[in-house]
Amino acid sequence: MSREDDVKDGPTGEPLTRQISEILDRAESELIRAATAPRHPPREALDRELREIKDTVLRMGSMVEEAIRGAIDALVRHDAAAAMAVIVGDARINDMQRRISSLITTSIATQSPVARDLRFLLSLDHVTYELERMGDHAGSVAKQARKIADQPPLKKYVDLPQMGELAARQVHGILLALVEVDVAAARSVAAADDEIDHLYHRTFDEVLDLMRADPANVDRGARLLFAAHYLERIGDRVTNIAEDVVFLSTGQIEDLNP
Amino acid sequence: MSVQDRPATLPRVTLPNTFTARPRAAPAIAGPKMQLSGVSVQYGTFRAVRDINLTVLPQAVTAFIGPSGCGKSTILRCLNRMNDLVPGARVTGTVTLDDTDIYGRDVDPVDVRRHVGLIFQRPNPFPMTIYDNVAYGPRRRGMKGGPTLDALVERSLKQAALWQEVQHDFRRKSGLALSGGQQQRLCIARALATEPEVLLMDEPASALDPIATLRIEELIAELRRTYTIVIVTHNMQQASRVSERTAFFTMGEDRAGYLVEVGETSQIFTNPNERLTEDYISGRFG
Amino acid sequence: MTLNTRITDRLATGVLWLLAAAVVVLLLTIIAHLLLAAAGTLNLSFVFGDPSDTSLGGVGPILWNSFYMLVLTMLITVPLGLLAGIYMAEYAGVGRLTNAIRFAQETIGAVPSIVVGLFGLILFVDAFHLGFSALAGSLALTIFNLPLMARLAEQAIRAVPDDERSGSLALGSTKWQTIRHVVLPLAIPGLVTGIIVTSGRIFGEAAALLFTAGLGTPDHYDFTNLNVLDPRSPWSPLRPATTLAVYIWKTNSEGLGQFVTQIADGASAILVIAVLIFNLGARLLGRLLTRRLTAA
C-alpha cells in the first residue's frame, strides 16, 4: 500500500489507511440502508416459520456445495471410497428436501400467507427441489468417479475441476442472492453459467478426440463426458433458482436461460 | 411422426394468467356501472372520507377492504344514498350510476334505492311471513297480489338459494323463525325482488357461522353473473375468494379515509403496488 | 368470595324479594278488603240493576256510563295520541319547536284534574253549548290524557329497532310506508301498554267529570233507543253520564240514604274488578294482534 493513496484523516487527526476507510464507508452505508429501509412490520408466528425454513434451505445448500466439491475431488483423485461417501450422503440431502417441503406446506395451510410471503414460500419450495436434483447430479458424478477409480486417469484434469469449483461457487452465490433477494446478484450468477457451458463444450471436444484416437479410451472417456454433463446441468439449475429470485422480488416470471 | 413432420416453429399460445373458473358473463353495457369522482363525506364538521375516485365494473364483485373505521361502509352507503338518512351528513363529489349522477337535483333517493339494493351486516327480516318479506319491496311500488307477484317471490327466493328450504311453508312461516344464514338469504331475496342492478353488501357474513358464510359466498358467485356487487368485508380471505376487483382503503393522519389502491384481486393478493396494501393483506399492519 | 360479600349478596337478594312481595301483598290486601266489604252486596241485580231511592238498587246504568266514557274518550285520545307520537318519534327534529312541544306535554299532564274539569265546564259545557254531557266529559279527559298517550306512543315507536327501518328504506320505500308497514306493527305491544295505562286513568277519573259529565243519577236506560242525537238514549254522547267513580263520591258525600255504605263498597269493588278485567283483556288483545301482524 503506497503513501500516494488517497487517505482521509481519522477522528483523532491521524491519516487512515485506504482499507480502513473503505471499511468505514461500507459500515456507514449499511447503517444508512438499515435506517431508511421500509419497515416490514412483524408477524411473530409466520416470521419464525419463515426464518426456520430459510435456515434449513441454506444448510441444504451448503450440503449440496460439499457434495459437488466432494464428487469432483473423488473423480480427479480416482478415490472410490470418497466417491462412495458422496453417493451415500445424497440420502441426507433428499431427506432435507422432504422436510423443508413439509414445513412449507404447513406454513401455507396454517398461516394463509399472501403476496411477498407467499411468493417467498413458493420460491423456496422450488429451490429445494432444484437443490435436491443438484444433489442427485453430484451423486451421479460420484458414480462415474467410482467407475473409473481403478483405472489410470485418461488425461490431466484441468477443465473438470474448474467446472466443479465454478458450480459449487455458483450454488453458494445464488443462495446468498436468494436470501438477500438481490436481483442484480442473481442475474450475474446466472450469467456466469456461460462460463460453465464454455468449459463443458471444451471438455466435450477434448474427450471426443481422445476417444476417437484410441478405443481403449472410450470407457473412461464416456464416463468423463457424463460427469461433465451433470456438472453442466447443475449450472442450469442455478439459473432456475435465479429466476425464482426475480419472481420473489418483482412478482414477474422471467426466463433467464433462453 | 418423424422429425421432418414437425413444424419449423411452434404456434404461439397465449395463456390466461387468471383462472378460467372465474368466468364473467359479457356485460350488458360497456364501461363502468358506477363511478365515484372526488367523493368526500362529512358528518357535521368531521370529514370521514376524502377524495374517493373509484370505478365499479358491471357484473363483477368489487371488495372494499381496510382497517376498522377507515370509512368503507360510509363509501358503500354513498352508492345508494343511505347516508342521506344520517342527520348532518353531507356528500360532495359525483356518484354516477350508468352515467346518471344519483345525487343530482331531480333524482329521488327512494328511486335510487330501488336500483341499488343494500344487505346489512345483521340480518334484519321484517316480522312478517317469508312471502310478505320478499313481496315487501314490489308491494310498496304498487304491485298487487296475484300470479305476477307470486312468480316474482318464487324467482327471488330461488335466486337467493332459499327456495328449496322454504317452498313448503313460506306463506305461513315467519321470517324470524329462520336460522341466521337463512335470514340473511331472505334479506338477499327481499332485495332481489325489487329487481335492482347493483347489490351492496355490508359485511354480509360477519354475523354468521363458517358454513353459512360459505353458502353466502357461493351465492355471491352465482349472483354476479347477473348483478353488479360491491361487498365490504373485514375478512381478507373472503375478499380474495369472492371478488374480481379489490379496493383497499385506510385512515389517513387526518382521520379521514382514503383509497390506497384498487386493482384486480389476483394482482392485489400476489403482487400489490403499494407497500401499505402489502402490509395490510399480509396481516402486518400497524 | 369472602364471607362478607356473600352475606351482603344474600341480604340484598332477600331485601329486594321482600319489597316485591310487600307490593304484591299490599295490592292483594286492598283487593281482598274491597271484595270482602262488598261481599254481601255484589249480586247480579246490584251490578246490572237500576238505582233506586227506596231499596239497595243497583249500578247498572252507572257501569254502562263508565265504559261508555272510556270508549268515547279513547276514540278521541288514541288516534290523536298516536299521530302525535308518530310525529315526535319520526319527524320532529331537535330544536326549539320540539322542546316547546315537550314542555307543553309535560305541563298539561301535570295540571290537577279538578282544574281541567273546571276548564271543561267553562269551555265545553258553556261556550260550546254541550251542556253536561258525555262528550264534554270526554273532551275534558282528553285534555289531560292526550299528553300521556302521546308520550307513551312516542316511546313505543322509538323502541322499534332502527334495523327494521333501515331495511325498509333500503328497499326503496318511503318514510311513511316504512312507518305504516314496519314500525307501527312492531310498536303494537308498546302502544297497547300505552292504551291500558291511559284507560286505567280514565276509568277511575272523578274530579274532571264532576263539572262536565254531570252528577245526575239515571233511573233507567232504554237501550233500544238507537237515536244518537236523543239525549234520552244511552247511546248518545249528548246526555249527562255519571260514572262509577263520580257516583261513589256523590253517594258518600250526600250520605243520606240508608244503603250508602253498601252502595259505595259495592261500586268500589266493581270498579276495581272492572279495571282488572279490562287490563287482562287488553293484554290478551295485544298479544293476539302482535301474533297476527307479525306472523310469529
Q: Provide the helix percentage of chain B.
A: 25-40%
Largest interface: B-C, 33 and 21 residues
Q: How many individual helices of chain A?
A: 8
How does the overall form of chain B come out from the CA principal axes? globular
Give the CATH class of chain A: Mainly Alpha
Verbal overview:
Chain A is mainly alpha-helical and 258 residues long. Chain A has helices at residues 18-36, 44-77, 80-111, 115-148, 159-180, 183-191, 193-213, 218-250. The two termini of chain A are 45 Å apart. The model of chain A is unreliable at 1-6 (pLDDT under 50). Chain B folds into two domains: 30-77 and 93-98 and 198-286, Rossmann fold (3-Layer(aba) Sandwich), CATH 3.40.50.300; 125-196, no CATH class. In chain B, 31% of the residues lie in helices and 23% in strands. Chain B has ten helices and ten strands. In chain B, helix 3 (130-140) packs across helix 4, helix 4 (147-159) packs across helix 6 (180-192) and helix 6 (180-192) packs parallel to helix 7 (210-223). Chain C has 296 residues and is mostly helical. Chain C is built from eleven helices and no strands. Chain C has helices spanning 3-37, 44-48, 60-91, 96-110, 113-127, 134-158, 162-170, 175-203, 207-210, 244-254, 260-294. Classes of the chains: A mainly alpha (258), B alpha/beta (286), C mainly alpha (296). The interface between B and C is medium-sized, with 33 and 21 residues.
Task: List the topology elements.
The complex is a heterotrimer of chains A (258), B (286) and C (296).
Chain A: H1 18-36, H2 44-77, H3 80-111, H4 115-148, H5 159-180, H6 183-191, H7 193-213, H8 218-250
Helix pairs in contact in A: 2-3, 2-4, 2-5, 3-4, 4-8, 5-6, 5-7, 5-8, 6-8, 7-8
Chain B: E1 34-43, E2 46-56, E3 61-65, H1 72-78, E4 89-97, E5 100-101, H2 109-115, E6 116-119, H3 130-140, H4 147-159, H5 163-166, H6 180-192, E7 198-202, H7 210-223, E8 228-232, H8 236-242, E9 245-251, E10 257-264, H9 265-270, H10 275-281
Parallel strand pairs in B: 3-8, 3-9, 6-7, 7-8
Antiparallel strand pairs in B: 1-2, 1-4, 4-5, 9-10
Helix pairs in contact in B: 3-4, 3-6, 4-6, 6-7
Chain C: H1 3-37, H2 44-48, H3 60-91, H4 96-110, H5 113-127, H6 134-158, H7 162-170, H8 175-203, H9 207-210, H10 244-254, H11 260-294
Helix pairs in contact in C: 1-11, 3-6, 3-8, 4-6, 5-6, 6-8, 7-8, 8-11, 10-11
